[in-house]
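Table S4 entry, NADH:flavin oxidoreductase.
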Amino acid sequence: MSVSDLFKPLTLLHGPEMKNRFMMAPLTSQQSNHDGSASEFDQFWIAQLAQSGYALIQAGASTVEAGGIAFERQMGIHSDKHLPGLTQMATTIREGGSLSAIQLHHAGHRAVPEVGGIPAPASGKTLPGIKALTTEEVERIRDSFIAAAKRAELAGFDGVSVHGAFGWILSEFLSPNLNDRTDKYGGSVENRARFTLEVIEGIRQACSPDFQIGWRLSIERYGLRLEELREITAEIFDRELIDYLDLALWDSAQLVREGTFQGKPLLSVFTELPRKRVRLGAAGKIYSAQRAGELLEEGCDFVLIGRAGILQRDFPLQVNANPMYESPAMPVTAEYLRQGGLSERFIETMRGWQTFVRPGSR
C-alpha cells in the first residue's frame, strides 16, 4: 500500500462510509464551560477540524453523568442543557463533509472531587474509605451511557465512541486488579466484560439502525491483561457489536513486553483477529504521511490523528498535498499553537503534556 491508499473510502457496518482513512482522535481540550456545555472555543476548534479533511471527527471525552467528571472544563453530554452546543458541533462537522462522533466517558474511580467528581470504584479496596459501586449503581451508570448516546443522536451526531481505555470506568471493570466484585460484574472475564458489552448492546438497541458505535481500548497499565482483552475483542468482532475499534496506543509501533505475545508488535495482536465487517484503527505517534501509510500495511483500516492534528490542524490535507509530509518537531512554542488557532485554554492543557509545549514559551 502507498500513502494514496489513505484517501480511499471505507464502508462501515452502519450508516455512511468514511471518505478516507483519517479519523480525528477524541481529544480532551479542557476548554468547555464549567457546566459542561460547549464553549465558543470548542466550537472554533470543531470548525477548524471540519475544514481539515478528516473522514470522521470524534469530539472529546464527554461526561455521561455529572459525577463522572475527570477534568476541569470537561465537556458534558449528561443533560439536555448540553444539546444546543452539541447540535451546533454536529452540524458544523456535517456541513464540512465529515462524519461525527462524540466520546462517551465516565471517570469511575478516577473522578476528581475538586471539579465535582464523585469517585465510583468497582472495588472497595481501590480508594480508602470509598465503597464499591452497588450492582444497581453500575446499572444506573450503564443506562447513563445509553441515554447519552440517544442524546448524541438527537444532537445530530452520526455515532458515539465508548471510552473503554486508560482506567476509566469501563476499563476499570475489565481489570482483575481493580475489580474484585462478586456480583455479575466481577470475577470471570465474561463478568468483568459485562459492563462494556451491556453499554454497547444497549446503545445499539436504543439508537437508530444507521447509528455508528466505536469503542476505544487501551492495553497498558491498570492491571489490564492483554490476553483477556484480545479474547473480549474477538467476541465483539465476531458478534459485530461495533462499527470500529480505536486502539489507543502510546506508540503504534510498540512491542509486547511480556506474556504470551512477548516480542510481537502490540498492534498485530489485534489486527490478526478475524474482524468480519468491523473496522480497526490505531493512534500513537503518527506524525508523518509515511507512518500513516505503514499502518494500513500493518493491518489497520484507518488511522487516528491526535497530537499531529493539534500541531497542524489539517493533517490529512497536508498528507494529500505531500506524501512525504512530516509534523513539526516538538516541543513547539505557545505562540506557534496560538497562530495555528488554538485557544489559550487548549494551550494551557497542552502545557501539561510532556514535551509538547516548549517550557517557558509565551
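The mean pLDDT is 96.
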